[in-house]
Amino acid sequence: MSESASLLQILGTIRKELTRGITIGIENFHEHYYLRNMEYYCETDCFNAPTISISPGKWGLGAFRSSITNGTRGLLTYELQSESFTLTDRLFLIIGWHVPLIGDNHYFLHVAQVESPDFPAKESERQRVYEFLSHKKTRAGKKTIFCYVSPEVVDDQKQQVNEKEDGKADHASRSCLTVCASMATTSLANLRVEIHPQKFPTDEQNVEGTIHIAGPPQRFSFTKLMEERFANAEIKVNDALEKFLKIKTESTVKDTRKGI
């Protein structure tokens, strides 16, 4: 069975067995980007684990079930990688949702740099990023979200563009991408995400670029504070001891010369 046929079969099973929750479908139309290192955070059951990696020209699927009391809310993230060039910074596609039992569905979509070495591997970091981004959600059915990104590139691994006079421009255009998302208003909501090369034609005024998410705040540690103070005290004692030995040595030399 082909990959597409398998995903269609999974989608059919989800529609039959899942009555409340969310399905997330991602189509990758960009020829240079791979979606890898999938991680998610969800406060309810994962009905069908999202596709681990989505190659150019492929699509992926995931589904999460609503709980009896709280509906479902969470975050799905992929790292954007390329085998044609190297990005200067790590970039993540971050998709978030909230499908309550009563009320409107909401979602968000971002391409982000996250200044935390523990993201997305650590669940607490995924939760922190979700809580940070969930304050600015879009109501389902209201509009499509667009993100246009032109990331900086370190080098070119596969294609030699230096032979062209406009090589830099060609290089930059291949790293550009537009991500768009829309969400249904039903109790079994479908969140559809597409990744397109360069700038996707749109009349939307509010098109977001890359966002930066700071790392977690440093917590006060009494142990660490004492270790730093002891280390500084040790340095000062060693400096003082070195000066004392130097003075003593010079004094001994002077006394020896006087005796001679």
From TrEMBL:
Q: Which Gene3D superfamilies match?
A: Cytolysin/lectin
The protein's name: 10975_t:CDS:1
Species this protein is from: Paraglomus brasilianum
Q: What is the lineage of its organism?
A: Eukaryota, Fungi, Fungi incertae sedis, Mucoromycota, Glomeromycotina
